[in-house]
Write a structure and sequence with these properties.
The chain is α/β, with parallel strands linked by helices. Helices cover 28% and strands 21% of the residues. Helix 7 packs parallel to helix 10.
Length: 440
């Protein structure tokens, strides 16, 4: 398999798409709303650790073109803020500067690359199994990512080479104050769930009875952050009246952001997938979004072949944005979010397919540092679906397909929900915890 990408610039390409999408029913839902939703959780860990730097009101009244323009501006600013570490592909998507991912390259191809000045290293530097033969090729000084990919594809037309794209969290959070927590009874003690995200603040009282193992994949240090903490709580957290979708389950967290400016790169997601598959997780949640990537696609196929279910959020860049990945890959469970009244979130993105909807707004989740935070975004719907599937798989000897069918059977049905809306009973209103308050 060889995948090539071309484009004429991110802004012109995507805004043209927005004009077409504006006439669709999904895009029409964006009109008539004019208040900020909250704070955007930014993609890179240095920003995730400094929430005062990323308060950007999300205005629902801006329409599909506005949501899309906001996304483009965010990604442009990301690359400008880290010019030594980051670059752009042909479409303007952020990538790691000077790095190319290669799937099972031949020895001859690697020799040719070295003669051009590339340094070559296997991507699986840690103990996880490499299921696809992934290599990272670092370009010689002065060669940009686009030129590096072009050169390698020219050297080895039969090979598969792609950029090391970045993926970002897809969630919105309010502000929080501490709240007491009291452990509840474990409901899914045999479930094993994987999470690819930021690090998780495990000292939070909501995780008092949880079994969580974490590993850093971007640098050597874990970096607990608000996004991963909130997502994890929606799977395994429990603190009356708050309860996650699979409390008591064992959670394995792959921190793919750490404290690195290149956090969220495709190679870290791939290594995280292999590590989680080796830990025999039944379900892996990925509340991250980005562009298609040949190496990531191959890794997902390999992990799914081991029987692991992968759940991913469709993103929050509006219906005019291009399909989000990894949610759009075949076989990945794509999840959108709804508010407390069951309405699909106005800012929800789209994927090449849609499987489920779950609560993604008007709800509380754990806050880094204790207490709860009011969250909004498809990031927070995906872990509810992941937790429910993991619980079903742990409770009886079901196949993944049978568990998905059972989950769909129990949901509310509408074309906007994919196969069904599930987990509304797991939505904890912010008022119920007396501590989470949305940003006004």
């Amino acid at each position: 398999m060889k995948i090539n990408f071309a484009g004429s610039g991110l802004r012109s390409l995507l805004l043209a798409s927005a004009v077409c999408m504006a006439a669709t029913p999904a895009a029409a839902q964006l009109g008539g709303l004019g208040h900020a939703l909250g704070e955007v959780v930014s993609p890179l860990s240095p920003v995730l650790q400094a929430p005062d730097r990323l308060i950007q009101p999300l205005d629902q009244a801006q329409g599909p073109e506005g949501l899309l323009s906001r996304r483009i501006d965010r990604l442009d600013a990301l690359v400008r803020a880290h010019p030594r570490q980051l670059d752009e592909d042909e479409r303007g998507a952020p990538v790691v500067r000077g790095q190319v991912l290669a799937i099972a390259p031949s020895a001859e191809a690697l020799d040719k690359a070295r003669r051009l000045g590339f340094s070559v290293r296997p991507a699986g530097a840690q103990s996880e199994d490499d299921l696809i033969g992934l290599f990272v090729l670092d370009a010689p000084p002065g060669m940009g990512a686009r030129e590096a990919v072009r050169r390698l594809r020219g050297l080895d037309p039969a090979g598969t080479y792609d950029f090391n794209h970045l993926y970002e969290p897809s969630g919105v959070a309010g502000v929080a104050t501490p709240a007491p927590a009291s452990p509840q009874t474990s409901l899914a003690p045999d479930a094993r769930i994987g999470l690819i995200d930021t690090g998780v603040e495990t000292t939070d009282p909501v995780f008092g009875g949880a079994r969580i193992e974490q590993r850093a994949f971007a640098g050597e240090r874990l970096a607990p952050a608000p996004h991963g903490t909130a997502v994890a709580s929606l799977m395994v957290g429990q603190a009356a009246p708050f309860v996650g979708a699979a409390p008591g389950a064992r959670l394995f967290v792959a921190d793919v952001y750490g404290d690195q400016p290149t956090g969220g790169a495709a190679d870290t997601l791939i290594r995280a997938l292999f590590w989680l598959a080796a830990r025999k997780t039944s379900v892996i949640n990925i509340s991250l979004v980005g562009p298609p990537n040949a190496a990531l696609a191959a890794a997902i196929v390999a992990v799914r072949a081991r029987g692991v279910v992968i759940v991913a959020a469709v993103g929050n860049d509006g219906p005019a944005a291009p399909p989000a990945y990894p949610a759009s890959y075949p076989g990945v469970i794509a999840v959108t979010g709804v508010d407390g009244r069951g309405r699909v979130l106005i800012e929800a993105g789209r994927a090449a397919h849609l499987d489920f909807a779950a609560p993604g707004a008007d709800m509380a989740a754990a806050a880094k540092g204790g207490g709860f935070v009011s969250v909004r975004g498809t990031s927070f719907a995906a872990p509810i679906v992941a937790g429910r599937l993991a619980s079903l798989l742990a409770a009886s000897p079901l196949s993944a397909e049978a568990a998905e069918t059972l989950l769909a059977r129990d949901g509310s049905h509408s074309p906007a929900y994919g196969r069904g809306l599930i987990g509304m009973g797991l939505r904890t209103p912010p008022a119920a915890v007396h501590a989470a308050r949305p940003l006004s």
